[in-house]
Amino acid sequence: MEYSPPPLFKQGPSALARLVFFVVLALALLISDARFKTLEIVRGVLGAGLYPLQRAALVPRDVFMGAADLAVTSATLRSENDKLRTKDLQLSQQANTAAELAAENTHLRALLQLSQRSTTQSLPAEIQYDTRDPFTQKVVIGRGAQQGVQDGSPVVNEDGVIGQVTRVFPLQAEVTLLTDKDQAVPVQIVRTGLRSVIYGTPKGDTLDLRFVPISADVQTGDELVTSGLDGVYPPGLPVAKVVRVDKQADTAFARVICLPVAPVRGARQLLVLHYLNNVPPRPAEEPDAATTAKDAKAKKGSKPADNKAAADKSAAKPAEKPAAATAKPAEKPSAKATGAAAEKKATTEKKPAADKNAKPQATPGAQP
């Protein structure tokens, strides 16, 4: 008895044959898509058709995230608006005060007939890359001599001093950062007006305010700005803030550690300043009147002494000749006397020898 269904209910090939067919078809599609990208169009059509369904499924999530973002954004905007209003009021007051001081400064300079001390021009630049030397704090900016960058120009950003241009190329320039161990900036303390020089450190993370006496009024939190006395940096640029003051009794100067105000390593956009200082150059050092008079007196006093020494020398030369001439005759008798003494000695030595020889001759003659 056969257990297979009757011919009326047979529906195509067997299950095994269909499994083999679909497996082979799947492998062929995978290989062709991986090798020849044959299903890219089909995939794009299916993605475009299913996109509305995906967006509809993500609507609840988007609604929830949007409501949360709206609440957070609203609170953030309110706080930022309050801060901006407060800062706007402060800046408006400072602007009014600055305008009043500028007008007063202009009036006083005109009254005293003083010219403007300096003018500052700025050139925007962007850092391109760091230098290859890991022991220096230097960066390279995308502005050079063709854009007007000059060697020694200060570099700043919106917060304060960043560094100084130390090498200029036609299209690029090298900037030594403020924290470099070889960089120095003349500064002064805003609170007291004390002037000094701030240096970088080998680590490159702090600044060292040197040549500050122990008795100087320096406190933690004091702000340092450029003094402008060097003619390189414009006066009043923020530089650093004091974070620690160490005063020891066995040293003449205090150790003052500072941190830069501007993000020296985090800045990307910079301003290169072209500082035009109208102050006349430093006068050449001239000798004092007292020193000049003293030198003149010394010269006058030395001339008679020199003349006197020359006269003494010339007088001494003729005197030496007679002495030498007098000494020559004295030497001759001494030589003759020496010869006579030698002859006398020789004669004395010969006489005993002759007497000795004569004695034996005298004895035989005496016996008869």
Automatic annotation (TrEMBL):
Cellular component GO terms, alphabetical: plasma membrane
Keyword tags: Cell shape, Membrane, Transmembrane, Transmembrane helix
Positions with biased composition (Basic and acidic residues): 294-320, 342-358
Residues in Rod shape-determining protein MreC beta-barrel core domain copies: 130-273
One protein family per Pfam: MreC
Family matches, as PANTHER family: CELL SHAPE-DETERMINING PROTEIN MREC
This protein's name: Cell shape-determining protein MreC
